[in-house]
Specification:
Order of helices and strands of chain A: EEEEEEEEEEEH
Oligomer: homodimer
Helix content of chain A: under 10%
Chain lengths: 121, 121
């Protein structure tokens, strides 16, 4: 595999699997590419909420807007440049408020494999 | 391990090991925490250049400024919100120009372990 560059302009978002909120993901690197990590971008429409049981270690970096993450130890908020680290096995609720939010994420191992998600791509 | 939030305000940068350029790293999660990935922030002063042989898979996201990454297949540039994925085994030169650059990174596995770096922290 070679060194590669990605940006939001390169991606097409799909609805995040297993729920019907307006929350979208777009992998740019995943199990199809042979490496150990999945890399992607996420998009949360305003006033959305998803419950997630972490099947993988998930590093989420907020690029635009703000997100609220409810954890067993309280609620964390993150804005541009801030990182939420969600270890495997944790359960969280990720929420947007009045503003859309855009994220980048890295998971180890591949979240689609761990969650048994199949995609068209 | 619990869900945690990090930002640039939380970190203290150290000179990137094995070179004397004004390039600094600050791990927020690493081998000390028991998970599989290292997470951190990087800072490149203007007009710096470092040569890196990737001992791990390294995902670098540019938060501020712009970076140039010379690879065997050409030069990539990345600005805010853009990601450079550097697979293990590749050799790159990462350069800043007139402007300072700030990055976030995620590595699998832990880069300090793979590079045999010991830190004071």
């Amino acid at each position: 595999m070679i060194v590669q560059k990605f940006g939001l302009a390169d991606v097409s978002f799909e609805r995040s699997p297993g729920q019907d909120a307006d929350v979208f993901t777009a992998n740019v690197i995943d199990q199809r590419h042979g490496g150990p990590v999945t890399i992607g971008y996420g998009r949360y429409a305003p006033n959305q909420s998803i419950d997630v049981k972490l099947a993988v270690d998930d590093v989420m970096l907020v690029l635009e807007g703000k997100l609220w993450v409810d954890t067993k130890a309280g609620t964390l908020t993150a804005g541009p440049g801030e990182i939420i680290y969600m270890p495997k096995g944790e359960t969280v609720t990720i929420r947007s408020q009045a503003q859309e939010a855009v994220t980048a994420y890295v998971t180890y191992p591949h979240w689609q494999v761990a969650e048994g998600v199949s995609t068209a791509s």
